[in-house]
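so my prof wants the structure for this chain in the tokens format not the other one, which i didnt know existed until like an hour ago. anyway here's the sequence
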Amino acid sequence: MSYALNDLTFPAVSYPNTTSPNDFILLEHSQQSTLTWTNVGIGLSFILFDVGVATVFRLGIGMSLLIAALRCIGQLSVVATLLQSVFENHNPWLVAAICLLLNSLGTFETVINKSPRRFQHMFPAVLVAMLGSTIPISIIGSKYAMSVEPFWTPIQYIPIVGMLCGSTISGIVVAVSYILKEFQENRDKVEIYLAFGASRVEACRPIAMQALKLALTPPINNMSVLGIISIPGMMTGAILGGSSVQQAARLQMIIMFMITASTTLASVLTTLAAITVCVDQQHRVRNERITKNDSRCDEIDGSILNIVAEDERGKSGRGEEERRVGIHRAQRKL
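here's what i got, hopefully its the right format
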């Protein structure tokens, strides 16, 4: 016997003390192979190959690759054990607790490990931005776009929140890192606007716009290549789980739209928070409220952000000479 919810088939989970068919979500395992730790070890050999390449070329990231792989194994093992219990209990409060935990851990990863710079009260600001973006969008998407009843069905809702958190982290890091870097390196440009009577919103608008463009570039690129160049993981997983290809494709469309919306909303909220903290009500740039993140574990992300920012700076003509021309034009306009 098999049962598919909304024409999509999901892993076998039975909920105790229930009799309704809607309380059972089953998946046929007859044609699926069972993966063991031996299979995981074989997969890990690909990472060892990467470590070897990094060592040969002296890239200095071999240890980072190995640590990231070990974290991946440990974290997914813990999550699998935890989620199995949540799926079996079918308790909305457990689902809410897991979602809060995911957002809290995502905030910690963003502020502590990913961001090369921080601003005062960044942790609560990022936490509010993540909760304010992932939770409403996941609820609306699950209930209306995916027609899941109840919307908090653990086996669907928790993975959705997890995917939204993962993508939202990247957008927040890119946006905030760019803004804080501009405040520190191009403070005089912002102060010129402020000195000529511009509000902090008007003075910071060019920086905020560029930061949001950078944050939304990855989701836009991902949507552009889906289906033609790449088959995403969510669609692949749905197909392997027994769903029809058409249903899997529609599910992936919905997920990508939700990811883009969540990234946009979270990036906007954190951008506004960063501007509010770094430029006070007296229209002064407060660089002392920006600190370098010396405890950041992921050094690779900082380098990537610098490369992206410099590339965008070059594309938009933000050389020293053109910056002076821009300030001169702003003076004439104001």
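also thought this was worth mentioning. The chain has a mean pLDDT of 82.
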